[in-house]
Structures are given as structure tokens and as C-alpha cells.
Design goal:
The complex is a heterodimer of chains A (296) and B (264). Chain A is of the alpha/beta class. Chain A has helices spanning 24-31, 53-59, 75-85, 100-113, 128-140, 158-175, 209-216, 228-234, 258-262, 278-295, and strands at 13-17, 43-44, 47-48, 60-63, 146-150, 178-182, 194-199, 202-207, 219-225, 241-242, 248-252, 268-274. Chain A has 2 domains: 13-199, 3-Layer(aba) Sandwich (Rossmann fold); 218-275, Alpha-Beta Plaits. The longest helix of chain A is centred in the middle third of the chain and has 18 residues, at 158-175. With 264 residues, chain B is mostly helical. In chain B, 80% of the residues lie in helices and 0% in strands. Chain B has 11 helices and no strands. The two termini of chain B are 29 Å apart. The mean pLDDT of chain B is 88. Classes of the chains: A alpha/beta (296), B mainly alpha (264). Chain A binds chain B through residues 32-36, 54-55, 57-58, 60, 62, 64, 66-73, 77-78, 81-82, 84-87, 90-91, 93, 122, and chain B through 5, 8-9, 11-13, 15-16, 19-20, 23-24, 89-101, 262-264.
Chain lengths: 296, 264
């Protein structure tokens, strides 16, 4: 990490992005107290990371890159050990001996994420998606203020990813929980309130997904007509760029291409609006950052 | 209550280890029977048949007590060091990010390792009965009386190894083996060391397990005619040395472990 400094607001969905080796996992390891920092200060939920590490741990939930479940135990046993470690309930050797609120909570959450039928089965029989769902239930049992998700959908199929995100969005909205996400699937950050991009331990960008798109990638209109000369003269003020196939590329920065379209009288044979995706903006940003580093 | 909470966490960690031993019963039983059969049955049996005749005491009973002390120490030690070996995977990650003191983590692992090693004790008894080694109920009582000290020093050795090699699971794994085998051969568990001299005598006295093996034999053979032939020191001396070593290892190992966790 190189002078990295950022803040995450309560209840915010914060996406922390960057290419491999950018320092994402190092940062998340420091924030979750599993790695000591060499300098600087960190405060989480109002607690100082150095002096109040236990309070920090109590106020966060984590879903690791690699599942942290005990495969020899059942899903419910994994949850029971978690709540006992976090001091929510005293340890009891069986589910039936646990207090009623615990039993109800486990069944309710298992129902919500769709693993109620398997909650008493060994975790080694679970698919990757089911393990992730179980980890989410477990990480929420102690009602953390902040949920750290370190590439939570790594290795999951599209259906499992979708259902996992539906649930995460739901709890984010209902519980007003702060979510700190690292991911390689950039589209997962589309719903984030704020995105922070790092590379080689330094921050490249911080802002909303829309700000990121606006900042880094221009929107443009691809346009063509039978009478290309007439079209080109009408759009001369917008600096049209000829494409290989003879069509014109006209960039714009406003929210819609209204201004451009209002100048066109020539009948169009083709028109396509290009809206930048977050992924394009991300690639643009990271590539530019790398080019600048190499140049310097 | 913070103390009650830490105790609950330690019990939880211990319970998980015990449950894992039970769930993984095929491996647990296999591993627990392997050492008694290999060391007491095969190695001890061979020594007993070929060299035990002129000793003046029952060599197999002598070896059984040595193996009880050694195996309980080793299994407890390995139970504690598994905390480091599994650090990068599975549930251990969950333990390390829970709001529980590192001391409670270690205490829970010592408890879990101790209870897990009871399986190897039962395995030893079964092998002993199968081989016809004399062992009365009173003798079993003597062994059980000393087991808390064996668990304590075994656990403390595990804590010390975890503290020294806490940053590297592979190093802990290797160090555990490096510690295990010298204890086995130099503590007097299988091979008498009463008449050792020179460098070997120094090494014998450097092995923590020497005092545990001697303590167990001191209690077991108390008041019998062979006491003077098989026991090195008064059991009180062994007990004081064992507890002192355990305390020193626990304090130093816990300190190093907590430091290594902070500096990770």
C-alpha cells in the first residue's frame, strides 16, 4: 500500500476494485485484523484497529475469498460454532439444546437463502453456491455493522451469483448494513454507492459508478446516411470521426444526444447509441494508470 | 462477563476439535492405533523379546508407561499446532477473525488436543491388553492421575512451537516432527536412560518428556521393588520441573504467538 486513504460511510455499498496484485486482499486483510499494517491509522465503526481490535472484529462480518467452513461439520454446526465464538449464545453440544431464538433465526435465514432443506447436512455435500449462502448466514448471525465481501462470487455459476446478489441487496437495504466489496466481476459494482479503484497500492479513482463512467469513457453516436456528405456538413460542429465503414462517430458529453439529433435533417440509414459500461470505464482507467506509471 | 465469554469461546474451539475427531473417526482411530502398534507393539515388542530378559523388571510394562507419556504429549502438542497448520484454510480463518483473545484460542486448542489424545490412550490400553502387558485398575488410576500434567506440558510445547513458527504452517509441521522423535528416543520412553552418560545424558535431561515419563513411572511404581531400577527422580521433583517447564513454555509461547499475530 502506498499512501492509500479512504473512508466508507455508514450504510454505504462500497466497491473496492483493482487488477490482480493491486492490493485489494492486503487492504481487506488489514481492515479485518488478519494482517498488521506497517504504518498509518485505521478506524472501523468508530474503533481504532490497533487498540480495539476485538471491538472491530465484533462489529464486522467477513466472507473470505476461500470458504472458511468446516467441511466435517454440518451447516448448522458451522453456524452454532460461530455464534458461540462471538459470544451471542453459550456453546451447547446440539441444535436442540440451543436457545429457541437461535433455532428460529437459523431456520429463518436458511429459508431466506434457500438452504433450509440442507441445514443439517454435512457441508462437504454442499455446492459452491450453497457454501457461499451458508457463509452469508453465518456472517450475519452476530448482526455486524459492516460486511466485508472478498470476491464472494468467485467460482460460482451465473444463477448462484444472481441469487446471492439478490439476497445481499435485500439485506443491504433492509438492515442498512455497510458493505465493503472486492470483486473481479465489475458488473457486480454497478449497484454500489461508491467505487474505489486501486492499483499497485495507490488509489486511481473514487466516486459513484456514474461518475466513473462519465469521467473515463465518452458516450458516442454511430450514425450513417445515404447522403453522407450532407450528414457530415450538418454535424461539422460536433467533430464527427469517420469510421472504416464510412459511418460517423459523434462524441457527446451530455446525458442524451439531443443536441446532435436536432441538427440532422438528412434521412438516416443507421443509428446506434453507445453508452459506456462500468467495465469499459474500469479497463480504461486501469490501462491509463499503467501507461502513466510506465511513462514515468 | 468477558472471562465467561472467553471461556465459552475456548470450550467452543475444544468442542469443535472433539467433534471433528468423532466425525473423522476412521482417520482418528487409524492414527491413534498406528503409534501404539508401531512403537509399543512392534518396536517395544522386539526390544522386549530380545533384550528385556535380564533387566530385572517387566520391560513391556516399562515401555507402555513411556509410550503413554510420549503419545499424550505428542497428540496434545499436535492438536495445538494444528491451529497454525490450518490457518490459511477452512474454519481456522473464522477463529482468527472472531472477537476472541488469542490466549483463549490457544487454551481451547490445548483442551481439544488433550481430549483428542485420550483416544490414543485408549488405543494404548487395548494394545497393552492384547499383548498381555500387566496393567491393574490401580495402575490405570495412576496413569489417569498423571494425565493432566502430560496434557499441560504437551499443550505448552505446542504453544511454544506455534509461537516460534507461527508465521509458517510448513515450518510448524516440520518442527513438530523434529521435536517428536527425539522425545520418543531420548526421554526413556522405550529405551532405558538411567545409565546414560556424557552427551547422551545431557540430551536426555534436555527433553521435557523425560520428566513426564519419569513422573508417570514414579507414581506407577511407587512402593514396588523395581522402583529404584526404573525411576530417575522423586516424582515431586519431576512434577516441579514439568510444571515449571509448562509455565515457561506457555508464557513465552503465548507472547511469541500474540506478537507474530500482530506482525503478520
Amino acid at each position: 500500500m502506498d499512501g492509500l486513504s479512504f473512508d466508507v460511510r455508514p450504510g454505504e455499498f462500497f466497491a473496492f476494485l483493482g487488477p490482480n496484485g493491486a492490493g485489494k486482499t492486503t487492504t481487506i486483510s488489514i481492515l479485518t485484523t488478519t494482517l498488521a499494517k506497517s504504518s498509518g491509522t485505521v478506524r472501523i465503526g468508530g474503533y481504532d484497529l490497533d487498540r480495539q481490535a476485538k471491538d472491530v472484529r465484533q462489529s464486522i462480518g467477513i466472507i473470505f475469498q476461500n470458504p472458511s467452513l468446516d467441511l466435517n461439520l454440518t451447516a448448522e454446526e458451522n453456524i452454532r460454532f460461530h455464534v458461540s465464538l462471538y459470544g451471542i449464545y453459550g456453546y451447547r453440544p446440539s441444535y436442540r439444546m440451543m436457545p429457541r431464538p437461535y433455532q428460529e433465526n437459523v431456520l429463518e435465514l436458511a429459508e431466506v437463502v434457500g438452504i433450509a432443506q440442507d441445514i443439517f447436512k454435512p457441508v462437504k455435500t454442499f455446492s459452491g453456491g450453497m457454501k457461499r449462502k451458508l457463509e452469508i448466514i453465518r456472517s450475519l448471525m452476530h448482526k455486524p455493522k459492516i460486511l466485508f465481501l472478498d470476491e464472494p462470487t468467485l467460482g460460482l455459476d451465473a444463477v448462484s451469483r444472481r441469487s446471492l446478489w439478490d439476497y445481499l441487496q435485500k439485506i443491504h437495504e433492509e438492515e442498512k448494513m455497510t458493505i465493503f466489496l472486492t470483486t473481479h466481476y465489475i458488473e457486480e459494482a454497478e449497484e454500489a454507492d461508491r467505487i474505489c479503484i486501486v492499483n499497485h497500492g495507490r488509489m486511481l479513482f473514487s466516486g459513484s459508478p456514474q461518475e466513473m463512467k462519465n469521467l473515463m469513457v465518452s458516450k458516442y453516436l454511430l450514425i450513417d446516411a445515404e447522403d453522407r456528405d450532407s450528414l457530415r456538413s450538418e454535424l461539422a460542429g460536433f467533430g464527427p470521426e469517420p469510421m472504416e465503414d464510412g459511418s460517423l462517430k459523434v462524441r457527446f458529453s451530455e446525458s442524451t444526444p439531443q443536441n446532435i439529433l436536432s441538427q440532422i435533417k438528412t434521412p438516416l440509414s443507421f443509428m446506434r447509441l453507445h453508452e459506456p459500461t462500468l467495465e469499459e470505464a474500469y479497463i480504461d482507467l486501469v490501462s491509463n494508470g499503467q501507461d502513466e506509471e510506465e511513462a514515468s | 462477563m468477558p472471562i465467561q465469554r472467553e471461556l465459552n469461546a475456548a470450550v467452543t474451539i475444544c468442542a469443535r476439535d472433539v467433534l471433528r475427531y468423532i466425525r473423522d473417526w476412521k482417520n482418528t482411530l487409524g492414527f491413534s492405533f498406528f503409534f501404539p502398534i508401531a512403537f509399543l507393539g512392534i518396536l517395544g515388542g522386539t526390544i522386549g523379546q530380545n533384550m528385556g530378559a535380564g533387566l530385572g523388571y517387566d520391560y513391556m510394562q516399562f515401555a507402555l508407561l513411556g509410550m503413554v507419556a510420549n503419545l499424550l504429549v505428542q497428540f496434545t502438542m499436535m492438536g495445538v499446532t494444528s491451529l497454525i497448520e490450518e490457518r490459511e484454510s477452512g474454519f481456522t480463518q473464522e477463529i482468527f477473525i472472531s472477537p476472541v483473545s488469542r490466549y483463549s484460542n490457544l487454551f481451547g486448542k490445548i483442551l481439544g488436543g488433550s481430549l483428542g489424545s485420550v483416544v490414543s490412550l485408549i488405543a494404548l490400553f487395548i494394545v497393552a491388553f492384547a499383548m498381555g502387558i500387566p496393567l491393574s485398575l490401580a495402575g490405570i488410576g495412576c496413569i489417569l492421575l498423571v494425565t493432566p500434567v502430560l496434557f499441560l506440558l504437551g499443550g505448552a510445547m505446542g504453544v511454544l512451537l506455534s509461537g516460534i513458527f507461527g508465521s509458517s504452517p510448513k515450518a510448524v509441521d516440520r518442527a513438530t516432527i523434529m521435536v517428536m522423535f527425539p522425545q520418543m528416543f531420548l526421554s526413556g520412553a522405550l529405551i532405558p536412560v538411567k545409565n546414560s552418560t556424557g552427551v547422551l545424558s545431557v540430551l536426555v535431561h534436555l527433553m521435557p518428556a523425560t520428566y513426564l515419563v519419569d513422573l508417570l513411572r514414579g507414581v506407577f511404581y511407587q512402593g514396588t521393588p523395581v522402583y529404584g531400577q526404573v525411576v530417575l527422580y522423586n516424582p515431586i521433583v519431576d512434577l516441579i520441573i514439568s510444571v515449571a517447564l509448562a509455565m515457561a513454555f506457555l508464557v513465552l509461547g503465548s507472547y511469541l504467538f500474540v506478537q507474530s499475530e500482530r506482525n503478520r
